[in-house]
Amino acid sequence: MLAFPLAIDESQKETNDQLILTGIRHERDLFENSARRRIRYQATGWIEYDEFYPRKSKPVADEIDHVLARHYGFTEEELDFILNYDIKYRLGRDAESEEE
Fold this sequence. Notes:
By secondary structure, the chain is of the alpha+beta class. The chain has one domain (13-93). It has helices at 13-32, 58-72, 76-90, 95-99, and strands at 35-41, 45-51. A two-stranded antiparallel ribbon has the order 1-2. Helix 1 runs antiparallel to helix 2 (58-72) and helix 2 runs antiparallel to helix 3. The longest helix is centred in the N-terminal third of the chain and has 20 residues, at 13-32. The model has no long low-confidence stretch (mean pLDDT 84).
């Protein structure tokens, strides 16, 4: 099992519960939006793998960012920066494609 290390004490149980549930939803959404691919390599034969499209799961990732922003006390401006940074760098969009 993979885990994201985050120090949350018992008084922040609600944040912890929200992160767990939203994280599970995010993982499910990633798999629901993935595609199974099969390719044949001359040297090794057939390889089967899942191809993921995180861009399609951005709404759930944004929910996680909102929970973390509340936890860390971010302003709306700081949260907006994170959400837009996500679009530009994590999802591979450039300024031109954002305007379309």
